[in-house]
Amino acid sequence: xxxxxxxxxxxxxxxxxxxxxxxxxxxxxxxxxxxxxxxxxxxxxxxxxxxxxxxxxxxxxxxxxxxxxxxxxxxxxxxxxxxxxxxxxxxxxxxxxxxxxxxxxxxxxxxxxxxxxxxxxxxxxxxxxxxxxxxxxxxxxxxxxxxxxxxxxxxxxxxxxxxxxxxxxxxxxxxxxxxxxxxxxxxxxxxxxxxxxxxxxxxxxxxxxxxxxxxxxxxxxxxxxxxxxxxxxxxxxxxxxxxxxxxxxxxxxxxxxxxxxxxxxxxxxxxxxxxxxxxxxxxxxxxxxxxxxxxxxxxxxxxxxxxxxxxxxxxxxxxxxxxxxxxxxxxxxxxxxxxxxxxxxxxxxxxxxxxxxxxxxxxxxxxxxxxxxxxxxxxxxxxxxxxxxxxxxxxxxxxxxxxxxxxxxxxxxxxxxxxxxxxxxxxxxxxxxxxxxxxxxxxx
Length: 444
Known about the structure:
The chain is of the alpha/beta class and 444 residues long. Helix 3 packs antiparallel against helix 4 (79-87) and helix 6 (123-146) runs parallel beside helix 13 (293-301). The strands form 4 sheets. Strands 13-12-1-5-3-17-18 form a 7-stranded antiparallel sheet. A 6-stranded parallel sheet has the order 7-6-11-10-9-8. A 4-stranded mixed sheet has the order 16-14-15-19. The longest helix has 24 residues, at 123-146. It is 40% helix and 19% strand. It has 2 domains: 12-136 and 323-443, nicotinate phosphoribosyltransferase (Alpha-Beta Barrel); 145-316, Alpha-Beta Barrel (TIM Barrel).
């Protein structure tokens, strides 16, 4: 059994509700929407990500014989439910914002319309897939916005919360504008460019630091980027200069060095001077070591001669905002608009569309959330991507999604690009949607 694709990747209450629905014959079309209630404390926007994995999951969604046997042996479920699950395939429709789209609270980024038991059973995995990649892509975009065009590389696998998280983080960060990843499987799975240097252990395994550099260069003649802070950073830079002459005679060029500790700006200035004076002005400096968007911004603003940054743990775990206040809520059943009115968690009922408006300078002005039949002149953000359980078209490639995300980031007003919280973006609830909510409230 592959845990990532198992239909049992759900919460128990989903199965318990499905059993009750079937017992009462409640299998009319249900409309659920995924949205974020509020932004994390240090975010001014979010980037939609994870739709591709949701569509993959729904396309292959089924209960295996092994899973059905286990459910039967648990003694918790009726034969009616087990028979239903044996035949179950996803037959619903999906509408969604394209991955890479900027969005804000109260805006649905995905809608599922399917028979009620189906739409209910997929809730947990859909939320899991969308919330994680959205969280990471939104974190990664903040580094992209402050890096001043310098390449950013994902170094986060080793501290990611599991293999799938590391892989999805590589994908989400690349979508958001990172140049590549060190995670090799992500290179194979998503055609993301791979970047890598060497570890301190490689240097420590040798008696002599220069010999370590030479051995690495001989093994990787087309990708010589040397880690120089194992002992004395500036002394190691001098050794790189001396070794470069020997390697050049063999046709090997040192492409760069990596700094991973200490005062990165100060080391970068000193190392840059040593490299330039030693005839290696082409050798680039890569900085790593517990970087996040705040440290990247500070290094860029200090004019440190750093050519690229490797960002790991903080991005892969979205360390300052490790979860989203997101929801997947029933907004319509059997044609009847539904609304949750819980204190602090009220929802807007019915099938909705989000329209976006740009200012004269082509930056975001405001969004309007309205009912699906209230057609407005702005740009509609939700598109139909799956009909009757089948995709309507091939999914866009990751390179296309990157271009879309870059264009979206380019439309952000300068205030929203800030790392510090600013007044919330203008998301308006239409009169039509407010009127529908009032109608539902009167009925309730």
